[in-house]
Amino acid sequence: MNYLQRRNGVYYFHKKVNKELSTNKNQIIRKSLQTKCYTTAKQLASLLNYWANEYFKMGIVMTSSKMDEILFNYLQDSIEEYSELEELRHHKNSVEIDNEIYEGSTKKAVLYHLKKHNKLDKKRDFQEIKDYVENQVIPISKINENELNELREIKEFYWKLFKYYGEVLKADLSKFEGYSVEESIDKHKKNKNQVVCRAKEKEN
């Protein structure tokens, strides 16, 4: 990951500005990720790299705007184990499945919420995304109410917070040893195929 660097044990996001947009030959976007954990730094750097490239496409060099600071800090706090935001998230994300309650920190609950998130992500309906962020994410984000009043006027705020929350859920799921998104999908497909085959056998 060539846009991730470490200095005095702390990781930094480090990316060269496209030559079409650069004001000088070696213009660099550089930001401390405020973590010594490689896993956390890798996730945060990937997010910043994604948005830096999106801004490049629009002909803009990404800056540390107010919105980016808020969302960046939110994500970092959220994926730190035992953080206050993690406790809030796990409390809110408790679910009832087949008449059984699963706490928000369990694999079943996290997987339930990640599937719901991914379903919305595929639909790309802004109003549904906005409602999800307002009801599911903002109440546990601890974002200052005064800042929220400004941010709610920005459509991109909802898209960004929705995307970042998806990364938080993935980070929660990755804490379960041996979990793999690909294996989970394959297992689901195999189980589904088995059900279909049994149904056809019964018909015959």
Provide the succession of SSEs: EEEHHHEEHHHHH
Distance between the termini: 54 Å
Strand order of the largest sheet: 1-2-3
What's the overall geometry?
globular
Q: Find the count of extended strands (DSSP E, 2+ residues).
A: 5
Mind summarizing the main beta sheet?
3 strands, antiparallel
- The helix count comes to 8
> Which structural category fits the helices and strands?
mainly alpha
Give the low-confidence spans.
Answer: none
Range of helix content? 55-70%
Beta content: 5-15%
Structure in a nutshell:
This protein has 204 residues and is mainly alpha-helical. The chain has helices spanning 38-57, 66-79, 84-92, 107-123, 126-137, 145-151, 155-174, 181-203, and strands spanning 4-7, 10-16, 28-32, 95-97, 100-102.
General description of the model:
This protein is mainly alpha-helical. Helix content is about 60%, strand content about 10%. The chain has a 3-stranded antiparallel β-sheet with strand order 1-2-3, covered by helices on one side. A two-stranded antiparallel ribbon has the order 4-5. A hairpin with a 2-residue loop joins β4 and β5 (about 100). The protein is globular. The N and C termini lie far apart (about 55 Å).
